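We treat protein structure as text, and this decision shapes the records that our systems exchange. We quote a single record here, exactly as it is kept in our systems:
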Amino acid sequence: MNSPASASASWSKRKPWAIPAGLTALALAGLATWQFWPSGDPTLSIPEKVCEGALPSDWVKTLLPERGESFQEKNAYNYSDATPGGRESPGGGKCNLSGGGEKLMINWYRMQSAGFTPEDLERDAAKPGSTPIKLGEAWGYHSGPGVDLFASCPYTKDRGALLAIQIGLSGLPDEVDRATIQHLANLAADAARVVARDVIGCEGAENLPDGPPRLN
């Protein structure tokens, strides 16, 4: 039996024209056919903006599969007479996106800040498997299949409130890689800016910085 070295040498001695030209043409034709043969799963078509055209879809495209069943969007809002603006201003909303067999939930609501303290956040962020998230003065954490992000959004000067953003993605493993956590956090940051600036008009919304949040 030839050694690996001798086998390598024997291959290197073959003349480049030893392969019949006809076989080369067939191989190239097969490659061209493979390149242009349609895949069994269609490419997922996601618009440039989602959630009724309010939210950039850059991170949605990163989180959902590239191929599979068609993209769908469903929105719902929570109107309450107990919130400022009543029936004219939503106190919360959901934007559920799906495609390629996966589901992505974007949920937001306004909550009394007294119901969630920095100590609560520190406790939840310190749990095993959690990752703290920071976006300027907004803060949150990753845990399980998604992230939570909280930003100041007071009702009045005497009545504090927080804007809560929740991002959830189906199909995530028990241990999520840091890149996926960053993508989820980036989507949460985009959603926080859109809701705080354009949907609710939170006081101090301009203080939410642009760009990605920091993972601690």
Q: What stands out?
A: The CA atoms of residues 29 and 73 lie 41 Å apart. The longest strand covers residues 102-112.
